């Protein structure tokens, strides 16, 4: 049996960035927004948003225009919007409100029993992209697709543009926000031109959305901004993309081990499919004593970077030691065949959602990862280091793992992996407990 054939989800509780969230929801949190529409609601309308309930990863926000000293011509509105923090980020799970004001475009095929509306701040936030509303972690180059509306008939394609300073009335100074641009398309509704367009949303870490501008295809513009809040802005977490999952990316690696690989193994790894925060890597041999064809699945989300699955077919002239766990029969012992086998081995995550120097996590003696590999140990983010490999010189994130696989010295030892922004794994050194060293370097 190959190492990858039995690999499954290795996600464990990852060391989260302490005290931070793109949409905090502690009891007592509150926000006041003002929104208007250039054509259908030219009067600035204030809405107060509070936390109605929260349990585990799920929470409900409620809004109302009551008591906000709005002009008599402003629309009245009350409603709730439900969220869940899941594997791909922040998702909207439900919403309720009174009907939109008369005269607003109908965002359904018929006017009767239409459950769609854009007559509130949070309706503009979740429109066209509910699962997720905000994909996490926010890293450079991130794009995602989503759907929304009562019948999931509204489509969106969102891009994380980066961070920038934005000014809103809630704060006396500009604050740094993550900027998300979404192309939204609705087809089949009476008010299609209003349901389609380009929406830009600015999210502040520790606060939530602070500004929304929706340029509707029909010409109207909806604008919402944060007027007051009980929360305080925090610096956004680093957005370096340490392991790109973009389709078409190709990395070529050289793997050496002076004792077991008299000739280096050279293999090419290509991202050949990508969707919803996950990607598939295809591996093929270039040269050396191992001939391999392999596929691996990875996901990068709030649980960090995890290996989801793997499938490998290999033939080897190299006499690499077999691996455990001891519960497997001898004829089904696993082997390392690719650089990703060396990287995945043990327990997850490979690194946390927002890795920072000093973060640590452990591999336990229960769960799927332990049943798969039988490995215990711990991992630590060392920080940013300079590494030199044939592909160039990189400032890379270093992660060190101490691994123990009982009875198998080649599956035990210390592994250090280096990940460069925009390239992924660029170097790996596995100092096995049998005294040998496997060295992986990015060639190109």
Task: Please outline the helices and strands.
Elements: E1 30-37, E2 41-55, E3 58-64, E4 78-86, E5 89-97, H1 121-126, E6 134-135, E7 143-148, E8 154-166, E9 175-186, H2 192-195, E10 197-204, E11 208-216, E12 221-229, E13 250-257, E14 261-275, E15 278-287, E16 290-301, E17 304-316, H3 339-344, E18 360-363, H4 368-373, E19 375-389, E20 392-405, E21 413-420, E22 424-432, E23 437-442
Antiparallel strand pairs: 1-2, 1-12, 2-3, 3-4, 4-5, 5-6, 7-8, 8-9, 9-10, 10-11, 11-12, 13-14, 13-23, 14-15, 15-16, 16-17, 18-19, 19-20, 20-21, 21-22, 22-23
Summary tags:
444 residues, mainly beta, YmcC-like fold, 2 domains, 12-stranded antiparallel β-sheet, 23 strands, elongated, disordered N terminus
Query: What is the C-alpha radius of gyration, as a whole number of Å?
Result: 25 Å
**DSSP summary: helix tally:** 4
User: What's the CATH architecture name of the largest domain?
Assistant: Beta Barrel
Mean model confidence by pLDDT: 93
Instruction: Quickly count the domains.
Output: 2
Q: In terms of per-residue confidence, which ranges show pLDDT below 50 for 5 or more consecutive residues? A: 1-18
Strand/helix succession: EEEEEHEEEEHEEEEEEEEHEHEEEEE
Helix/strand-derived category reads: mainly beta
Strand % is: over 45%
The order of strands across the largest sheet is 6-5-4-3-2-1-12-11-10-9-8-7
How much helical structure, as a percent, in the residues? under 10%
β-strand number: 23
């Amino acid at each position: 049996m190959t190492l990858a054939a039995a690999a499954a989800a290795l996600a464990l509780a990852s060391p989260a960035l302490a005290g931070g969230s793109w949409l905090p929801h502690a009891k007592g949190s509150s926000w006041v927004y003002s929104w208007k529409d250039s054509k259908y609601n030219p009067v600035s309308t204030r809405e107060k948003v509070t936390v109605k309930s929260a349990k585990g990863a799920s929470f409900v926000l409620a809004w109302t225009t009551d008591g906000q000293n709005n002009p008599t011509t402003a629309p009245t509105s009350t409603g709730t919007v439900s969220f869940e923090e899941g594997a791909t980020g922040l998702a909207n799970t439900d919403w309720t409100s009174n009907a939109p004001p008369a005269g607003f475009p109908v965002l359904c095929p018929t006017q009767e029993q239409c459950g769609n509306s854009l007559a509130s701040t949070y309706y503009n936030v979740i429109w066209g992209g509910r699962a997720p509303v905000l994909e996490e972690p926010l890293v450079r180059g991130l794009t995602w697709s989503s759907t929304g509306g009562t019948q999931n008939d509204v489509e969106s394609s969102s891009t994380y543009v980066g961070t920038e300073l934005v000014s809103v009335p809630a704060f006396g100074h500009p604050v740094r926000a993550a900027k998300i641009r979404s192309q939204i398309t609705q087809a089949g509704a009476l008010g299609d031109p209003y349901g389609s367009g380009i929406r830009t949303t600015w999210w502040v870490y520790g606060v939530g959305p602070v500004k929304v501008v929706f340029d509707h295809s029909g010409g109207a513009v909806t604008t919402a901004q944060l007027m007051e809040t009980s929360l305080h802005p925090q610096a956004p977490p680093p957005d370096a993309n340490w392991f790109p999952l973009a389709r078409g990316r190709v990395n070529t690696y050289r793997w050496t081990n002076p004792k077991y690989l008299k000739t280096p193994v050279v293999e090419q790894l290509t991202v050949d499919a990508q969707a919803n925060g996950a990607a598939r890597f295809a591996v093929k041999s270039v040269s050396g004593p191992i001939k391999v064809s392999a596929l691996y699945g990875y996901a990068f989300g709030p649980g960090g970077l995890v290996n989801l699955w793997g499938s490998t077919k290999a033939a080897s002239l190299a006499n690499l030691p077999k691996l455990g766990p001891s519960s497997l029969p001898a004829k089904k012992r696993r082997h390392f065949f690719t650089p990703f086998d060396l990287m995945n081995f043990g327990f997850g995550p490979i690194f946390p959602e927002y890795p920072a120097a000093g973060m640590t996590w452990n591999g336990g003696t229960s769960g799927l990862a332990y049943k798969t590999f039988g490995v215990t140990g711990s991992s630590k983010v060392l920080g940013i280091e300079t590494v030199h490999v044939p592909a160039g010189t990189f400032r890379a994130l270093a992660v060190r793992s101490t691994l123990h696989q009982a009875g198998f010295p080649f599956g035990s030892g210390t592994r250090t992996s280096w990940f460069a922004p925009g390239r992924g794994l660029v170097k790996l050194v596995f100092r096995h407990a049998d005294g040998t060293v496997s060295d992986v370097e990015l060639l190109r």
